[in-house]
Amino acid sequence: MFRLLGICALLDLVASQAVPQTIQLRSRIAPKEAAIRRRALNPVTVNLTDFFLGTDLQWFGDLHIGTPPQTVSVVFDTGSSSLEFASTLCGAACSNQIQFNSSKSSTFVDVGTTSSITFSTGVGVDPVVGANYRLTLRSARDTVAIGNLSAPSTSLFLITNQTPKFNIDPFSGIQGKRDRQQKKPGGMGARAQGLFASLVNQGLPSLFSLYLTPLAVGGAELTVGGIDTTKFSGKFHLTFASLPAGSGATWTLNSPQIFVNGKSSTTLRATRNVIFDSGTSNILFPTATADWSVVAFEDADKKPHRNAIYALISPNIVPFSPEPGTYGIACSSISSLPAQISIAFTAQNGQPFNLTIPSSELSVGPFAADPTICQTLINAFDGLSLVGASLLKHYYSVWDVGGQRMGFAAI
Ligand SMILES: *[C@@H]1O[C@H](CO)[C@@H](O)[C@H](O)[C@H]1NC(C)=O
Ligand SMILES: *[C@@H]1O[C@H](CO)[C@@H](O)[C@H](O)[C@H]1NC(C)=O
Ligand SMILES: *[C@@H]1O[C@H](CO)[C@@H](O)[C@H](O)[C@H]1NC(C)=O
Ligand SMILES: *[C@@H]1O[C@H](CO)[C@@H](O)[C@H](O)[C@H]1NC(C)=O
After folding, report:
1. Scanning 51, 139, 347, 386, which has the fewest C-beta atoms within 10 Å of its C-beta?
2. What is the Cα–Cα distance from 148 to 202, expressed in whole angstroms?
3. Beta-bridge mates of residue 273
4. What are the domain boundaries of the chain?
């Protein structure tokens, strides 16, 4: 899930990241003997479960909190902030979630700062309207373990209240990245923070990998500290692209062009930064990229043409007014539409490569408000280009914090 306070906050975020910063992997200088004694930690793989509601939405797995450990499941989210999960302080508002009881943990420390976060992409495929995805939090510290790797005194947030939109979640929380505005420590961002930073300090290689498979395929997993090469092989190898300078904690790659069914256009040949977000199911593009950009004299007939992504798929894909930002088309016609979207990137060796979303992803299922209309995968969101599960589930992805790069292998 991607958190955004508004366009001003985004601009502030970009401005504050303009100066490249050094990643501090160790919080203090260890004496030489200690460094020699320090052993490497082996990578650990945790199984992920697909939250599926007509379409693949999010993938979640287990973390173990406190002493003795209580297991909560969280979405491993590269696009949100901090580690937060339902607690017994949330009571009835979190009655569908497993709740962590801090009274049962001997290592729990209540920091006691209260705050709230609002997400700009939701758990489902529908867009966020107002503050309908909002969590109320209380800060704390406790031991957090993933697999057999354990990080003592890790900053976390107990969910003490949540909006009803979260009720359907089969998981208790979110392991996100660090949020710069709120200075909340997390762990899945492009800077080592929180749980992940603690494990890296203990000698774990500074990367993680995601295998986010569709429900029908199964076997989704997160490998912390390594790459599970059994998930891709033969002609499929990892292609790495560097994060652009100044991308801060956000997983972003620069893209020179988008192709729709092999075609491009003036609008789609623009350079854009694309955010990769494992916690969002849909794709977000600015309205002009998604839908309504009209460019004069693009074609031989010298008439103005719509030339954005949907215009190249079908003129019948139109905004679905009950849910601002979404688009739809009659379900009866959607399965026959070719809608292959390739986003071009540049590999570390300078060669171009595409990440491709197949036509089968175009439909994310019928709208509840009108089941004859099927929602299409791109939501309009001005100021942001962001890809989530509909792309990531077609690749094995490596999120290399230490190397400041991302790797992809087709699966
Ligand atoms: C939390 O744990 C304490 C200590 O075991 C117990 O007294 C309390 O009832 C628990 N709270 C809930 C809501 O389960
Ligand atoms: C964790 O388990 C893996 C095997 O799954 C093993 O290779 C590794 O050494 C273990 N790490 C620790 C810290 O016990
Ligand atoms: C993880 O999933 C694999 C199958 O994909 C299974 O063999 C293994 O037992 C699972 N591990 C755990 C800890 O559930
Ligand atoms: C990317 O996709 C476009 C459209 O299908 C194709 O023309 C181009 O050759 C592809 N680029 C690479 C490097 O495969």
Report:
1. 347
2. 13
3. 254
4. 42-211, 228-410
Residue 274 CA from chain centroid, whole number: 12
d(CA 313, CA 259): 11
Task: Output the CA 10–ligand 2 centroid distance in Å.
Answer: 40
* 53 CA to centre of ligand 3 in angstroms: 23
Q: Which residues does residue 177 pair with via DSSP β-bridges, in sequence order?
A: 81
CB 194 within 8 A of CB 94: no
Task: Return the pLDDT at 28.
Answer: 37
What pLDDT score does 9 carry? 29
Q: Which CATH class is domain 228-410?
A: mainly beta
* Contact call for residues 217 and 53 (beta carbons, < 8 A): no
Q: Whose CA is nearest to atom 4 of ligand 2?
A: 44
The token pair at 201 is 């300090």
Specify whether the CB–CB gap between 83 and 73 falls below 8 A: no
pLDDT value of residue 303: 54
Distance 146 CA to ligand 3 centre (A): 15
Rounded CA separation 16/8 (Å): 12
CA angle (211 as vertex; 44, 235 as ends), nearest 5:
110
The single residue listed with the structure tokens 């491993």 is: 76
Q: Which of 56, 62, 77, 169 is catalytic?
A: 77
* Residues listed for the chain: 411
Q: Using DSSP bridges, classify how beta strands 378-380 and 283-285 pair: parallel, antiparallel or unpaired.
A: parallel
**CA–centroid distance for 91 within its chain:** 28
Q: Which CATH superfamily is domain 42-211 in?
A: Acid Proteases (2.40.70.10)
Ranges in the chain, pLDDT < 50: 4-37, 177-186, 296-297
Gap between the Cα atoms of 280 and 125, Å rounded: 8
pLDDT at 1: 59
Contacts of 361 (CB under 8 A, 6+ apart): 339, 377, 390
The Cα–Cα gap between 108 and 99 comes to 15
Q: Where are the beta strands (DSSP E) in 107-162?
A: 109-118, 134-146, 149-162
Domains 42-211 and 228-410 share a fold: yes
Query: For the whole model, what pTM was predicted?
Result: 0.86
Dihedral pair phi/psi, residue 104, rounded to 5°: -90, 0
C-alpha 278/C-alpha 196 separation (Å) is 16
CB atoms within 10 A of CB 238: 18
Amino acid at 201: N
Q: Does residue 277 have an active-site annotation?
A: yes
